[in-house]
Amino acid sequence: MQNLKVPSLFRQQALIGGDWQPAHSGKTVAVVDPATQTVIGTVPDLSGDETRAAIEAAEAAYAPWKKRTHAERAALLQAWHDLMLEHIEDLALILTTEQGKPLDEARGEIRYGASFVKWFAEEARRIGGQTIPSPTPDRRILVLKEPVGVCGIITPWNFPNAMITRKLAPALAAGCTVVVKPSEFTPYSALALGVLAEMAGIPAGVVNIVTGMPAAIGAEILANPTVRKISFTGSTPVGSLLMRGAAGSIKRLSLELGGNAPFIVFDDADLDLAVEGAIISKFRNGGQTCVCANRILVQAGVYDAFAKKLTARVDAMKVGPGTEAGVAIGPMINEAAIAKINRHVEDALSKGATIVTARRTLPTGPQYTAPIVLTGATTAMQLAAEETFGPVAPLFRFETEDEAIAIANGTPYGLAAYFYTESLKRAWRVGEALEFGMVGLNTGLISTEVAPFGGVKQSGLGREGSQLGIEEYLEAKAFHIGGL
Ligand code: NAD
């Protein structure tokens, strides 16, 4: 990869027990720049054998890592955090080249990713325990917090940096060691994090990174009893598959899965604020986020005005390579993503929706798609039932608050929801009625390291970030002391 200030951040090998390695078979997987369709490089296509070696390396590193004081682990995490910010330009360029998002958004993701490392470096010192009053005078009862053990970390392509740090930082702070399997579409951001972890002085074997196609690696992570926990971010079908696979050795699970976020604009909303929120929530990362507004529900009284204001903003968005100045919408990750977006839009148009944004000429390349606003969306359309994962803003019209809540909750997913109102009473009613793990009132921004992130229903299990995030990597041991 060209134009990196520190070229060694671009690694094309897997990291196992402190060694950078190719696959034993010599097989590789090509990684493609979605903006240009050119091959950036390759990574090893590892098998179950190398995955087992990575798990063994994590197991060997576990006992000494667990024994370190919390302050020592915190200091290493802090050093890793500082290196991320020091190398933010290189990390952002690697991210944009393999994933496509605009460079400014990539820089934002690196800062967001690093914020989890700092947060959990701080939280490491606050892993406490409990003393419990004993039922008899000759006993004492303590609750000790201990690390879960070796963790398998499986992450998606849409946030190739932050989805990793959001898991690794609490895992390492708690005293766990990890085997990370990044998405085969975006492995270089993960490998760069591995280089920086080494530079920070995190011991060999604490962080192992296995690359390649998911089936063989996933099968070993699931079957190997040394792996005590799997933390996964990705689609609901793969999450469900991992849950079944983890049952064999009763592993703990954290699952951050798909969403189908409603974004509700009531008649009494501040429309400019709502449009701003919709732009952030719908179009960040080209609409390829799990918390992105998938169904924009607008009350009849402000429907036309909201549609007009949103359309004006979307028409002004520039589409192009993420490395070009001023670009708001980069290429989509692959042609399958484009096919899904097209399928949803064609289905909506065939069922009565209208594209109200202006026609535009797109840059050359199969993975560019125009950001659009669709009016006349209904719940009979595919885009109401599934995440579109693209820059398509469908506007559904509703009449009453009850109707909006029923539509919003009418999904098996429960990750994020947003609503806009200036009424205090409505704010409480709707906030409490929405069946989602995260709710934004008058804001489209709900991701921060200080608040719990996660979903209910088929959007997953567990929470990341906040004070809760580290609990996912800790076991409670009841320690009874008798005969006093
Ligand atoms: P995906 O489920 O296809 O892949 C996610 C990861 O799982 C990748 O690393 C992939 O290689 C791996 N994987 C696939 N099959 C596997 C198997 N059999 N065994 C082990 N690993 C396997 O998801 P994606 O397309 O990379 O990401 C998009 C999805 O992620 C969307 O549904 C989105 O909503 C979701 N997502 C959720 C959150 C959240 O926090 N809830 C955040 C980002 C993305």
UniProtKB/TrEMBL annotation:
The active site is at E256. InterPro entries: Ald_DH/histidinol_DH, Ald_DH_C, Ald_DH_CS_CYS, Ald_DH_CS_GLU, Ald_DH_N, Aldehyde_DH_dom, Aldehyde_DH_Superfamily, Succ_semiAld_DH. One of its GO terms (biological process) is gamma-aminobutyric acid catabolic process. Residues 20-478 form the Aldehyde dehydrogenase domain. Belongs to the aldehyde dehydrogenase family. This is NAD-dependent succinate-semialdehyde dehydrogenase. It comes from Rhizobium jaguaris. The keyword Secreted does not apply. It comes from the Bacteria. Transmembrane segments: none annotated.
